[in-house]
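Most newcomers find our protein records easier to grasp once they have seen one. Read left to right, the backbone structure tokens trace the chain's path through space. Once this layout is familiar, the rest of the handout is easier to follow. The record below serves as our worked example for the rest of this section:


***
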Amino acid sequence: MKQATVEVDGGQEPASSSSAVQGLKIYPPKESSYDDYEGIGEKPSRFEVWGWYLYEFCSYFVQTVIIPVLFPLIISQLQQLHIDPVQEWHINHPGMTCGEKQIQLHSTLTKRTISVSGSHFSSLEWTSIGWATGLVLAIPSLTFISFHLDGILQNLITAAATGVGAFFCLPAGFFKTTKIFIPYIAAIVLASTVATASHTRHLGLMIRAQLSGPINRTQFIKRQGVSSKHSLHATAAGTLGAAIVSSFIYHMLREPPDRDFISLWIVSIFSGLIWLVGVLHAVTSPNRGSPVFNSVSSTFHPCSVFKHPHAVGGLIGVFISSFATMCIFTGGVLFVVGPLCVKSVHLLFFWLVYFLFPLFSMPLLQPFQQLIKADSVKMNLMGFLLSLLSSGFGFYFWNSHWKWGHIMMFGAIQSTGTGLLHAFGRVLVLECAPHGKEGAFSVWYAWMRAAGLCVGFTVAAVVPGHIRTSFGAAFCAAIVGCVVLLFGNVSGVEGAVAAGHVMGDNERGTNGLGLDSKESVSVCLKDETLELNK
């Protein structure tokens, strides 16, 4: 128990129950914000940090490759076209040459061949329905686990969600029926969103453990260095995993047409097994449970995020950035495969540049960030500006014949913007998350990111032949994202102050009593006697 001390005639005297100070009113001791950092464990070891990177490597591709690329391709193999797509292509694109298999693939992806109760959907739109279903199911699930995530069940939740998601990747081609893919995709989206929330919370706890306590504003750059390093390196590892899976998809698409379905099923099994490897991180990492007791019920625990406006602004930025990046990626791939009809190997090069370029650009951005002394908000703005550049380029030159170099440049610029927005979006949210509520903030981050990706994919899927619509929507979204961060007064530093990670101006130089260091005790001259420490 803390004992207050008072200064009397230049000397300090402990205030006890047997002593009383006449004519003085002494304010009760102010609990140090360091107390909130007790019990979070030792500083993260290199093994724990690399394990966290491993999980990003094993899971990043789920909502960036598996759902938007692989599952639409699998579903398209079950569709039958009533009109010869090759003949239709030559009518709509006179003078252009394109491979028969490539035309067939693009047509089965974009034609509305799935009929349900009088409504018609394409393979891409069918994937969007499954994605949206998973997001709806994730709302009650995330609300329930957020309270337990901020306890001691983080590793269990990560392992369980990963196991469920990997399991539903295995039987993707067992039943050759289109309708079965709705629950498949929904289950994978649900599991991936829950696992992302747990994975993000772990980053917040590692950062806090590495800093060991609240810091001054002048030391905030130290926290930025730690969080940026972990998030950027993890993003680079995640894009490497995505490059491996996308290359495997391309390799399997080169199989004979009658084996495409089985070949893509093998990719789904392979992806599920890689995702399952990420369980090693959940099993081996220390359980950094929160010692803070949450008095709020589990139902309203996620609502605590609304008390932090900087976090709300960051979450809006996460949704917009996810929407813009997925809209550009999906629209760009459909544009390359369809209207441009480039050689199939150029599609592989585009995927490799898009997913491998961040492997080199992300680690280089940390010293660049330190050089220009940019916080997470400014780095997010940089990501939005790169998205503006790539989407504006695609929108303006949509009717031009893109050469191989243009496609590679487009992929390199957009991949860097996507990596920046992903890495610093979660950094900004975690800077605003108070101790003991990282889980509540992380579930919001995971859901907003998944929702943005879903909406961006849907917009590009609904208008596959109108690339200007996809790029135009992404361009406008990027502008809105910049406006939110700039004029919404979003600040990582102020958010960290409100969350208790950084000491505010009124907390500098305070002693254990919460008083200014220039005063040993704050008193109010009143005629009363106060007994202390009863």
